[in-house]
Amino acid sequence: MQSANMQEGKTKRSSSNFWWQAAGIIGELLIAFAVICALYIAWQMWWTGEQAEHTQVEARQAISWQNPKTGDKTKIALPQNTDPPALSKPKSEDLVARLYIPRFGNQWERNVVEGITPDILSKRGLGHYPTTQMPGAIGNFAVAGHRNGYGQPLGDVDLLKPGDAIVVRTKDYWFVYKYTSYKIVTPDHGEVIDANPDHPGEKPTKRMLTLTTCEPKYTAATHRWISYAKFAYWAKISDGIPKELSTIDEQGKVKFINNEQQSLVSRLSSLVPVMVVVLLVYMMIFVAGAIAWQWPELRAIHSGLKKKPDASIFGGLLRIQPGITAIRWILSILIYFFIVLALFQWIFPWGASTIPFLQQMSNYSTTV
Length: 368
Hints:
Elements: H1 2-61, E1 95-100, E2 110-114, H2 118-123, E3 126-128, E4 139-144, E5 165-169, E6 173-185, E7 207-215, E8 223-236, E9 246-248, E10 254-256, H3 272-292, H4 296-302, H5 313-319, H6 325-354, H7 356-362
Parallel strand pairs: 2-3, 4-7
Antiparallel strand pairs: 1-2, 1-5, 3-4, 5-6, 6-8, 7-8, 9-10
Helix pairs in contact: 1-6, 3-6, 6-7
Protein name: Class E sortase
GO molecular function: hydrolase activity
Active site: 146 (proton donor/acceptor), 214 (acyl-thioester intermediate)
């Protein structure tokens, strides 16, 4: 009778231990899911911006646009009050201009590329609506961009104030616009980028600039935020820089506010080289640990010196690494780091372009 009771007690403890371990594994999976979600937000909010910056810097370096007169000889370009020069229509995906909006920060600069495809808006800066006019022309120079993620080029449109400068730089000219107003519309209001948005279909009489982006900023874009600016003047690149993009240093000299410094991380075109380095470091430490210490943790468990641990994903990964505790932690961290890099390089981009929910959350529609 006593033996039967003991056996029953063991069975109950075994059953209880099983469910306890199962709950632990489920908890670990939930933690992993939460971490992946947080990493996806980091990828969306940060890494896509670094990639976009890399692509834009490469595009600027690949062209032969002259630099404005900078350095000790920097001067303010003379505003031209005559009709602006007519610009030829660019080919699809060509660099149209570089945009500066001091309200967004002295270092804020974005490329404007011909076209509004997802690839352009996600990686190459801002997109020029091909059906709208060129900078300085009578009509509407309309540009689309992300409000959130991918460098969020138009993330701060709500900070613009009347009179703020919006400067367009082409190969040879500056075109300076002044912000006037904004409106929030549903995506079906295509007239906002009409040559005459105030009176769609009528002949335009003003030179305008329009910025379109999504609204609200952090959730599914049900509306569009439309920002308008009016033309102020144009200037020649060879004459210097617009006063709106200048500052005076301690010596009283004119300086260009944008130093065009590229962030260190954005210099990476891909995370694959980093992944290769991480993998090589892991392999070297793994081999060294296996030779020097073998697997002391597993040996202690198998020999009975240590109690057999409960089932655990994270704990199991740590235990199968060779070496002393510090070495095993280093190896485990390298594995987790490699997984994060793989998520950023392949998994998250695939999810954002394939999974419907993530597509809706991540991709910006240019329909206005």
